[in-house]
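Fold these two proteins, one after the other.
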Amino acid sequence: MSMDKDEKSDKKDDMLREILKRIEQLENQNKSNKNPNKNKHNSNMKCAYCGKLGHWESKCFKRLDDEEKLEQNRMTTNTKSQMKYINSNVKVPGNEH
């Protein structure tokens, strides 16, 4: 007995549904397994920057804070230097001796 076109089409549709269902299951599984340690405290990790346990240097709040402060200080210093340069080179009319 051979299958007619409708039976073949139904079988293909069922297979496609099963494949799509499996893909969705795998995607959901992948999402939940993406970073299983994200919310876990890992006391074996030691930061090379601050020396504290539980995180790496790349995620160190102290390092990130220090870098931000350094950048702000650099910007402030550059602004002050630029203002001194501008003020020393600006000629005010009437004060020329």
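Now the second one:
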Amino acid sequence: MLLNDPRVDPTAEDSIVLRNMVTANSAEAILVLLADGRADPAALDNWAIRQAAFLGLRNVVRALLTDSRVDPLVGGDSSALILAIRKDFTDSAKIILQSPSVLPRAKNYGLIVEAFAENRLYAAQLLLDQYNFEVVAELDPVTAIVKFEECRNNINIRTSLSQDVLAVVDKVAQMFISSGLNLDDRSASFQYLCCEWSEVVEELQS
């Protein structure tokens, strides 16, 4: 076996051997390299899993996630998770979302809240789609809270909104007031809205 030869260095050129195996869609070879332990699957800002997610190579994604050095959330809007969702590779996205390193952060919409807190609204909306949030008055939790904040900061904006949108904004305001939330804590407010969104939809669609 080549890996037993002392002249072989799987770490060379930022673990290019492993990265080549990603491009070749060889999950088995990647598992062998990971078992050897020397090649770094997180080299170049987790290039390996980001590339696998971008190409929709679900078996490669699954193989890479067996190594604790791999972080599919590194890279913001260019992370493996967001790339998989953006390219509509739902299998790869689900594998990432259900991986042990991601699952705790995904609980209670944590990943969506993280993206929202960092003002990565596009990523937040992509993540919303993975949870099948319903839309009401063409609004989802991201766009609804943005409208709510706009109205809160400038009441005159209300005159430019449709009655349907205003109904959502007012419902959101009512929920926030009833909850006693600190509205300056955008992350907590948004997380609360995500958790209670079904109530907004149910009331406004009835």
